[in-house]
Amino acid sequence: MSIVGLSKRGTEFRSVIKGAITKGFSANKTIQILKDTYGRAYQRTTFLSDYRLLGGAKDVFEPMKFIRKDSKISDRHYKMSSTPHERKYATVIDYTYESREVEGLKTSHYTLRHDSILTREEIEDAIMQAIEEDYDVVNVTTVAPREGYKFKKP
Question: What pLDDT is attached to residue 122?
Answer without folding.
Answer: 95
